[in-house]
Give the backbone structure.
Amino acid sequence: MPVSTRSILHVDMDAFYASVEQRDNPDLVGKPVVVGGGSNRGVVAAASYEARKFGIRSAMPMAEAIRRCDHLVRVKPRMSHYVDASQQIFAVFNEFTPLVEGLSLDEAFLDVTASVKLFGPAAEIAARIKQRIKTETRLTASVGVAENKLVAKIASDLDKPDGLTVVMPEVYRDRLDPLPVRVLPGIGRETLKRLDRIGIATVRDLRLAHDRDLEPIFGRYTQRTRERAAGIDHRPVVPSRDEKSISAEETYDQDLSKPAEMDRELLRLAERTATRLRKSGLAAGTVQIKIRRADFATFTRQQSLKPPSNNTDRICRLARELLHSWLATNPDARIRLLGVGGSKLAPAEQADLFSCDLAHDTSVIDVTVDEIREKFGSRSVGRAKTLD
């Protein structure tokens, strides 16, 4: 089917993490809420629309967010809840098309070209998806409908929250030309400065600019950039690839200075990572750690784990070896951030209950803890070694 006749949706959940928290706790509704670490040294993972009125955005330092809004409500992330909601949302997507390209837990492209005969026009499919998400999760989504991924993504952001915007080729100039040039992918802060110096502020300015002005900035990508400004994009929707890594990290209010403190935090992080691996039915073939010193210097170390595993103790043991090897060359280091992750992921093997060697399998303790937490919540049980 010709590219020009495609029907593409870009679905973007509205302030996803913060919206989940407001849904689950009615006391937060209408308040400026940010999701992020309890530390003033952490960053904002998500901000409610009430918080955004104060100029608060994701990735902003928490201290800056608090400075902008002195009555800001901070909530610690609950990743398992966001993952659960995401799975419900993607299940809705897959009812309408198998061509779903996930960009994150709360964002995806859908190619519904072949679904139109069954479900009706793309705009009607978008409306049905929005309603199904709202019914299933009590959350809202904004959807852009277009003939390609670029324009669909731009469209989804034009009427947030809870929007549905259709932008077809016949209205490209009316809808795209007035937009700030930063809506186009690949144009970051430094590029914006260079464009501003030559008087390019809007998509129209970029579309009509001379090559002699653009080539010093975009080089061999000049033609592609001009095509984007004209709303041209031939990229297909590619069904999402398997997750490449799973990790957990934490920024601390006070720097970690004692090895015993570091070991305790490492166990907590290893447990979070291993739990996510098991929930995803995956095992890690490589364990890596991330270390950020008090002076913001950041280091990573990794080592193979054979056979691949999602066993908390095995992941923690290897992570501890990596950390102490690093400490040997960084004595007296003070640590502000630690992270533990697993990569080179593979489907987890079914544990053999009659095997004498269970080292590569999920332990009985892990299985029991997972079952208790599934029933009573993530804080219902924990390892004694993680207690302060």
Remarks:
- Residues 350-361 have pLDDT under 50 and may be disordered.
- The first strand starts at residue 8 and ends at 13.
